[in-house]
Amino acid sequence: MSMNWLEGMNDHADGSGQPHPMAMPAFAGQKLVVVGGSSGMGRQTAADVVAAAGSAVIIGQDPGKIDDTVQTLAKDGPAYGIAADLADRMQAEQVCQQLADEHTDATLLTFPVGYGADARAVAGLTGAFANPEPVYLQSTGFVLDPAGKVVVSVYSSGAIGRLVPEDVAGLVRYVRGHAATSA
Questions:
Q1: What pLDDT score does 25 carry?
Q2: Phi and psi for 47 in degrees, rounded to 5?
Q3: How much is the pLDDT for 102?
Q4: How does DSSP classify residue 45?
Q5: Neighbours of 136 (CB within 10 A)
Q6: Which end of the chain has the lower number of beta carbons within 10 A, N or C?
Q7: Residue 118: per-residue pLDDT
Q8: Which domains, and CATH codes, for the chain?
């Protein structure tokens, strides 16, 4: 199982009478599409979702890394891989078609690629913030509780102010500790 922030939220006895940490099924029935999911934060995000009863579609350029990631994730749940260079418009269109044909049940998207997207139009439709010049979508991050309620949301036009894994893990520890003392 992935070593992720969801572990320990559900203690589970394995027949020995001793509880061991197990990720709670916070993503049951959810499928994540993660661009750049064969390494780094994308891979860990996919691992967290799969370990918490979800599934993941990994999209990246290196077929070997994608295969390795899918095999690793498949130990905990369903995982799929798509190799493509999304900077190539034809390959990007093929990936979109493959997602439409094989993964219409996807409910989550992270590290989206907006190649050729109109940043102002996307901002108008989603409420995201667009930088005026040069035009690009500003980073937006959310932390959800297990019920799907937004606990924290931020946006940033640079590295300062963005959510980083260490801060999210600290928030989760704080919320857990606060919940334990108020119970």
A1: 79
A2: -60, -40
A3: 96
A4: H
A5: 15
A6: C
A7: 79
A8: 1-116 (3.40.50.720), 117-183 (no CATH)
DSSP string, 70-126: HHHHTTTS-EEEEE--TTSHHHHHHHHHHHHHH-TT--EEES---TT--HHHHHHHH
How far apart are alpha carbons 45 and 20 in whole angstroms?
A: 22
* Helix or strand holding residue 12 (H, E): strand 10-13
Q: Which residues contact 61 (CB under 8 A, 6 or more apart)?
A: 83, 84, 85, 86
> Shortest CA distance to 66 belongs to which of 79, 55, 76, 54?
79
Helix (H) or strand (E) holding 146: none
**Residue 29 and residue 20: Cα distance in Å, rounded?**
24
Q: Give the Cα separation of 127 and 80 in Å (integer).
A: 30
Here the contacts of 113-116 (C-beta below 8 Å, separation 24 or greater) are 113/35, 113/86, 115/86, 115/87, 115/89, 116/89
Q: Which residue has the tokens 């799907």?
A: 148
Mean pLDDT by runs of 10 across the 183 residues of the chain is 47 52 75 87 87 93 96 96 88 91 87 65 75 76 74 67 71 78 66
